[in-house]
Amino acid sequence: MVYIKGYECTICNSQYEVNEKLHTCPKCGEKGILEIIYDYQKIKSKMTKSYFANCTDNSMWRYHYTMSVEPGLRSKYLRVGGTPLYKAKHLCDIMGFKKIYIKDEGVNPTASLKDRASAVAVADAVALKAAIISCSSTGNAASSLAGNAARIGMNTVIFVPERTPEGKLSQLLIFGAKVIVVKGSYRDAFEMSQKAIKKWGWYNRNAAINPHLVEGKKTVALEIAEQMDWKVPDWVAVSVGDGCTIAGVYKGFHDLLQLGIIDRIPKLLGVQSDGCSPFVNAYVKKQKIEPTEENTIADSISVGIPRNPVKAIRAVEKSGGSWIAVSDHNILKAMKTLGSNEGIFTEPAGAASLEGAEEALKLGIIKPDETICIIATGNGLKDTKNALEIAGKPIYIEPDMNELIKIIGK
Amino acid sequence: MVYIKGYECTICNSQYEVNEKLHTCPKCGEKGILEIIYDYQKIKSKMTKSYFANCTDNSMWRYHYTMSVEPGLRSKYLRVGGTPLYKAKHLCDIMGFKKIYIKDEGVNPTASLKDRASAVAVADAVALKAAIISCSSTGNAASSLAGNAARIGMNTVIFVPERTPEGKLSQLLIFGAKVIVVKGSYRDAFEMSQKAIKKWGWYNRNAAINPHLVEGKKTVALEIAEQMDWKVPDWVAVSVGDGCTIAGVYKGFHDLLQLGIIDRIPKLLGVQSDGCSPFVNAYVKKQKIEPTEENTIADSISVGIPRNPVKAIRAVEKSGGSWIAVSDHNILKAMKTLGSNEGIFTEPAGAASLEGAEEALKLGIIKPDETICIIATGNGLKDTKNALEIAGKPIYIEPDMNELIKIIGK
Fold first, then answer.
1. ipTM attached to this prediction
2. Is residue A319 within a helix (H) or strand (E), and if so which, with residue range?
3. Which of A79, A84, A174 minimises the CB distance to B340?
4. Alpha carbon distance A84, B163 (integer Å)
5. Which of A191, A277, B19, B237 lies in disulfide reach of B357, CB 3.0 to 4.6 Å?
6. Are A233 and A372 in contact (CB under 8 A)?
7. Which residue segment(s) compose the domain that A382 sits in?
8. Per-residue pLDDT tens over the stretch B165-177
9. What part of A 203-262 touches B (C-beta under 8 Å)?
10. For the domain that residue A343 is a member of, what is the CATH number?
11. Is A53 within a domain?
12. Which 92-151 residues of chain B touch chain A by CB within 8 A?
C-alpha cells in the first residue's frame, strides 16, 4: 500500500488526485514535472525506529512506506540498494576533510545508482501491465532499465547517444535490450525516445518525465541517513546531469525531516564537469539554464540540456548548498585517489563528486569542520578506457628473476 | 576469537598446532596444502539459529565463528559478501530445471567472489603486521587483493599473465597496485610470484598456498545455505581453475553439516572450459592431473596446472558430484541467456557454471527433479570484449523518426 496524497506541478503548483495516472502536468506539458506528495502523518505511524530495527529487507524496498510504487513480490526483482557507506579515513588525511563518507553505488545489480529508479519503473510498468519500457540514456539509466526489466521478463527499447562507452553498451546487449544508437548527442537520443514512446505507447522511464523515478533515487539518501544512525552529514556531494539524482537526494532527506526522523537536510553540493556545466553556469551567472556543449569524459553527467532543472535547482537552493564545476583531468585524478586510497573504483561521474568536494573545501564553501558524504554513482568497470588513462602503467617483464630484481631492488 | 584446533596436511595427514604459523606442510613442501581444523563443539554453542536471527552484520564476517582469521574493526575493510541469491524462474522455463538459483558474486566490492579470500588475506596480513601483500592471478584474485588492501592502506605487488583483460587490469592500476605483467602463461606468473614472495618476505595471498583463503571463499556456501533457510540444493555448480573456490564451497557445507545446521552436503559440479580442463581430463581418464593448454576465453579458470588439485578433487568426490567441460562458444551463449532472461551479467567463468549445469541436465548427471544453485563468480563488466562477441549488435540510426519506423514497424 502506498501513502500518496497526490501530485503537484513543479511549475504552476497545480495539484492532482492520486487516482489520476499522470507523468507530467496537463497544463504545463512536458516541462511540468510533477512532485509526489505523501501523507506523512500516516507514514509516521509506520516508519518508526522499531520498524527499522526489525526490518530484515536490506534492499531499497525497506523504505517502501515513502515510495510511490508497490512492487508486489520483491524476490521477483533484482536486489537494488543496501549499498555500503564507507568512512574514508585515508581521504581525510590526504584532502583535509574532518570526516568523509563514500556511498558506493557501484555494487548495485547493474553497477549504478540508476538501478534504484529502474526498479521502480519496472514495478510500475508491471502494475500497469505494460509490454515494453523505453528510455533514452547516457548509459547507466539504460543498462539498469535493461537489467531490471530482463529479470522480470519485460522487453525494453533503449535510445543511447553515439558516445556511450563499451562497458555500458555490452550490458544493454547482454540484457537483451533493443538498442537504438542515435547518431547525435544525448538530446537527440532523448527526443527520439520521447517521440517513439508517444507513438507506440511504451512505458516511459525517462527520469525527468516520470515522477516515480525520483522516488526510487531518493532511497540513496534514506540509506545514508540510516547508515549514519539518522545523524546526517553537513554536506552531500553528487554529480549532476539531468538533475534527477540530486532532486532525489533532496527528496529523501526532505521526507525524513517531515517524518521527524532527522533534524535537518544536509547541504547539497551539485558537481558538474566544466566541459558540460549548464547548472553551474546558471548558478554563477544568476540566470536561467542555457544549453551547453557536452564535452566531458564523465558520460553519465554529459547532459547539455538538463531535463529536470527546476527540481535540481530547488534542491540545492533549499538545502542551502552550492554548485561547482571541475575539470575532466581532475575528475580522473580523483578516481585514482579514491581507488588507491580506499579501494573503491568509481566511474568518472562518481569521482566528480569527490573532486567537487575537495575543491569546495579549498574554496571555503565546505568548512574544515564539516562532515561530508560523497555519492559514488557507478562502478568504474563501466568505463575502463578512461580509467586506464590515469591509472598508470603495468611493468612488463620476461619470466626472469633478474629482471624483477632490477625493479624491486635487492 | 577464532575456534581453530589446528592444521592438517592434505597429503600426509600430519597435524600441526594452531600456534605454529604455517602456510604449507613442512614435510611435504609447497604441495602440502593445509586444511584448517575447527573445534565444532565450541562453535555449536555460538553459531545457533538465534545468533543468525539477531546478527545485523550482512557481510561475510557474519560467519566469523567458522573462520580462521579475526578482522578486528570490520568497518575498516571493504564490505564483502552478503550477495543476493536469485531464484531464476525464466531459466527453468528455458532449460528445463525444476528449480535453479543464481548466486550473484559480481556485486562484491571489486566485483568477484575472490573478494572473500582477499579480505581474509588482508585481515591476516594486518594481524601479522606485513608491509606488502603479493599474489599471482588470472585477474580476479589480483584485483580483489589490490582493492581490499588499498582500503586498509597496505601495498600490493601483483603478478598477472599477459592475457589479463583490460577491465581487470584497470582495476589493479586504479587500486594503486604495483602490477608486474609476466610475459608468459599463468604458471609463469605464479612461479615468479612465489620466488619473489620468498625473496622479499611479502605476505602470500596465493590461494593454493595460503590455507586461510579457502576459509574466506567458503562463506559463499554458508550464505547460500542461510539464504535457502538451511535447506540446501541438490547441486551446486561452480567453475574451476586452481581448484580453491570449489574446495571452499565444499568446506562451507562441510562445516554446516558438522555443526548440525544442514543435513547433507550438496553434490558439487566442477565446470571447466574444454580449452583448459585438467580436472575433467583426470576425472574422465581416471588418472592424475596432467598439465594442459590454457586455451579459453574464460580467463578466471584458464589454469593449465591447477595449484590445489587435492582439495578440489576430494570436494567433488566426497560430495558425490561430478566434473564437466563445456565449450567457450556455449559459455558465451549461456552468458547471454543469463543476462537477457534474469538480468544478471556475469563473466565467462560465471556463465560456465550455468552452461555446465545445463549440459549435466541433458546428460542425466543432474536429474530433472533436482534443484541446483549456480555460482556466478564475477561481474561481466570485467571482460566486455568477450561479452560483445555474443551480445548482438545495436541498431544505428540518424535522429529521424522515419528510420525508426522502418525498424519498429507502424
1. 0.95
2. helix A309-319
3. A174
4. 32
5. B237
6. yes
7. 85-111+213-391
8. 777 788 999 999 9
9. none
10. 3.40.50.1100
11. no
12. 104, 107-111, 146-151
